[in-house]
């Protein structure tokens, strides 16, 4: 199974760096079959990488997630915003479906961010959320049946 | 050419477009209506994180090219290179002292950035406007609708953007917080494997870029009067140009022309920018208002970006783009083109030029050279200018004896286009806002006008769950008359 873990965010904006920090941790584990990428924002070209994957996990800071994090399955959907150059995970999935006719199962790990000021380093509350999210992600990615485990965890957190 | 007044007058109604966030950065449009329901003036407010200039102070100068990338998640490469160019001066190399390998690697990085940025704007943001019409339903106003009806176009957009990103990765080292450009040079050359990988696809990239120019011309040709008249106004234009007057997106001296093409100044060295460019601060805006000193604050504002660059330069030094440039200039009889929506045309010509330049550079053996960094006699001040995708970008630093940055002044592209975007919104509002009801058409038209300038509202961070768009009509007593909200889902 080809697994893609995408970290999104700007490490120069405190908790916006939660996504990159977590995906750097994933990189350090050197897990077989896990491909990682980090960028400031999602964009249209990410649809091409998603199309080449069997399972995708987006890791991002979130201002609406409950602490320490949310984990849920993402569904392809069009989301338009005012003259912003970035895309939402759901829109990337929708674009992948439209252009490549593929829609791999995808999940979002939204880690609660508390501060988005112009500074390096994650806030103290953000660090606690990050540690818990990292443990969750490590357990998840080391599980034998990853897709089933993702669905199970998403269902558990929803309930 | 009159700038807008600095305070609201009594008995005016206000229309406010306000994405309610400071995380992603936000724009807000206020349209002031008189008692008869006619447009009096407009104001576009875009939050700019001025604190960044202080954030850089106290850091060692060599960190600047990396740190400044945190300013913007959309064009980090432009900030990276502008800061590196300023620090070239600080380390005594100056703008002309880089090794051929270093300069060409930086140019390759920059053309990769131009290609991907222009492709993103055209396919992701602009193509729904052009293909479906300015008053199309909101759910069609995104790249997904384009993908549904024009899948080949969407695929081209994705692959153009991806190609530019791969060029950046090869030259800057990585997609995020690249370290390719350093004071005095570059920290890597291009391997032959990287070169061959990029060469494999470049002809297709050039073909798609040419097709993108053709698409803009085709759309324009379907209704040229409407296209030309939409949000158009006369203005001055500013960009850097090469010493022989050629378009040069990486390096050159400043040139400004007026609405008729007369030169206001020419070949102004980057270090002398403050002698010619002033920055006005207005109480109602977070953004500065740059102006040409010679013309004063009221008449000295100017446009930057693709339209301004093609109005300032004498020619484009690549054959396919030059041919398109000749057609572009001929359309306005050789005079500056002042049509706002022709930014799209100019932008695609620049994308074609960038693709051609990438091919030229990839076949240059200097990119495999090993003379990467040069040093000279250190100075305490440096200015770096570059033509970022959205327009001229100014980076100015002072450094003390301990190598720490003591002053940083940035004029970013969107700031340079501040007054022009106000003018574009005013033109649209004048044509489409009457009465007390806000229509979705009005919101669309305002967006289309602003979008032509490709402003960067994202300010380097995003976080899930933000960036709705809110439009309100209020009277001067604060009473809500009508409102329209566009949520993040597009509903």
Order of helices and strands of chain A: EHEHEEHEHH
Q: How many individual helices of chain B?
A: 16
CATH architecture of the domain at 98-232 and 339-373 in chain B: Orthogonal Bundle
- Which homologous superfamily in CATH is the superfamily of the domain at 98-232 and 339-373 in chain B? Cytochrome-c3 Hydrogenase, chain B
CATH topology of the domain at 98-232 and 339-373 in chain B: Cytochrome-c3 Hydrogenase, chain B
Q: Mind telling me the CATH class of chain A?
A: Alpha Beta
Indicate how many domains the architecture of chain A comprises.
Answer: 1
Number of strands of chain B: 16
Quaternary organisation: heterodimer
Question: What does this molecule look like?
Answer:
The complex is a heterodimer of chains A (159) and B (491). By secondary structure, chain A is of the alpha/beta class. Chain A is 38% helix and 21% strand. Chain A has helices spanning 18-29, 46-51, 89-100, 124-141, 146-158, and strands spanning 3-8, 34-39, 55-62, 69-74, 106-112. A five-stranded antiparallel β-sheet of chain B has the order 3-2-1-15-16, covered by helices on one side. In chain B, strands 8-7-6-11 form a four-stranded mixed β-sheet. A three-stranded antiparallel β-sheet of chain B has the order 12-13-14. In chain B, helix 6 (151-172) runs antiparallel to helix 7. The radius of gyration of chain B is 22 Å and the shape is globular. The two termini of chain B are 37 Å apart. Chains A and B meet through strand 2, strand 3 and helix 3 of A and helix 1, helix 4, helix 5, helix 6 and helix 16 of B.
């Amino acid at each position: 199974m080809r697994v893609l873990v995408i970290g999104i965010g700007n490490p120069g904006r405190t908790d916006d760096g939660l996504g990159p920090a977590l995906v750097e941790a994933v990189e350090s584990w050197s897990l077989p079959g896990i491909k990682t990428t980090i960028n400031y924002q999602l964009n249209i070209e990410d649809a091409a990488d998603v199309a080449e994957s069997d399972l995708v996990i987006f890791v991002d800071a979130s201002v609406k997630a409950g602490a320490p994090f949310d984990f849920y399955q993402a569904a392809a959907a069009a989301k338009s915003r005012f003259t912003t150059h970035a895309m939402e995970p759901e829109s990337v999935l929708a674009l992948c479906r439209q252009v490549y006719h593929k829609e791999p199962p995808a999940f979002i790990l939204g880690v609660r961010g508390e501060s988005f000021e112009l500074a390096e380093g994650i806030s103290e509350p953000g660090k606690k959320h990050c540690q818990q999210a990292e443990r969750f992600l490590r357990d998840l990615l080391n599980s034998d049946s990853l897709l089933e485990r993702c669905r199970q965890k998403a269902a558990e957190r929803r309930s | 050419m009159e700038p807008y007044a600095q305070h609201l007058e009594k008995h005016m109604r206000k229309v406010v477009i306000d994405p309610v966030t400071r995380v992603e950065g936000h724009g807000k449009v206020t349209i002031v209506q008189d008692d008869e329901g006619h447009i009096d003036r407009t104001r576009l407010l875009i939050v700019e994180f001025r604190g960044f200039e202080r954030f850089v102070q106290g850091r060692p100068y060599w960190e600047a090219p990396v740190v400044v990338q945190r300013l913007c998640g959309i064009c980090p490469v432009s900030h990276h290179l502008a800061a590196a160019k300023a620090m070239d001066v600080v380390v005594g190399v100056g703008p002309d002292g880089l090794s051929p390998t270093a300069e060409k690697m930086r140019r390759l990085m920059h053309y990769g950035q131009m290609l991907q940025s222009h492709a993103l704007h055209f396919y992701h943001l602009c193509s729904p406007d052009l293909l479906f019409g300015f008053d199309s339903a909101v759910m069609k106003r995104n790249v997904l609708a384009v993908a549904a009806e024009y899948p080949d176009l969407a695929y081209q957009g994705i692959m153009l953007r991806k190609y530019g990103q791969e060029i950046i990765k090869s030259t800057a080292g990585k997609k995020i917080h690249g370290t390719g450009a350093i004071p005095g040079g570059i920290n890597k050359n291009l391997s032959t494997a990287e070169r061959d990988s990029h060469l494999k696809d470049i002809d297709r990239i050039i073909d798609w870029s040419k097709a993108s120019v053709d698409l803009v011309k085709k759309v324009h040709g379907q209704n040229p009067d409407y296209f030309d008249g939409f949000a158009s106004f006369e203005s001055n234009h500013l960009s850097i140009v090469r010493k022989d007057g050629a378009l040069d997106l990486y390096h050159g001296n400043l040139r400004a022309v007026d609405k008729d093409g007369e030169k206001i100044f020419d070949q102004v060295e980057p270090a002398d920018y403050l002698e010619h460019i002033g920055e006005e601060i207005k109480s109602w805006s977070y953004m500065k208002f740059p102006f040409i000193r010679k013309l004063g604050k009221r008449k000295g504002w100017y446009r930057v970006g693709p339209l301004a660059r093609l109005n300032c330069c004498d020619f484009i030094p690549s054959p396919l783009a030059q041919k398109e440039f000749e057609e572009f200039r001929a359309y306005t009889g050789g005079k500056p083109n002042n049509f706002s929506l022709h930014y799209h045309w100019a932008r695609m010509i620049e994308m074609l030029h960038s693709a051609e330049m990438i091919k030229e550079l990839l076949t240059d053996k200097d990119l495999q050279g090993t003379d990467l960094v040069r040093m000279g006699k250190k100075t305490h001040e440096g200015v770096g200018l570059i033509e970022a995708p959205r327009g001229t970008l100014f980076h100015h630093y002072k450094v003390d004896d301990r190598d720490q940055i003591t002053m940083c002044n940035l004029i970013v592209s969107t700031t340079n286009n501040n007054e022009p975007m106000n003018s574009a919104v005013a033109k649209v509002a004048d044509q489409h806002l009457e009465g007390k009801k806000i229509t979705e058409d009005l919101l669309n038209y305002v967006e289309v006008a602003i979008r032509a300038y490709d402003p960067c509202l994202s300010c380097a961070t995003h976080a899930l769950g933000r960036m709705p768009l809110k439009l309100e009509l209020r009277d001067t007593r604060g009473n809500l008359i009508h409102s329209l909200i566009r949520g993040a889902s597009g509903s």
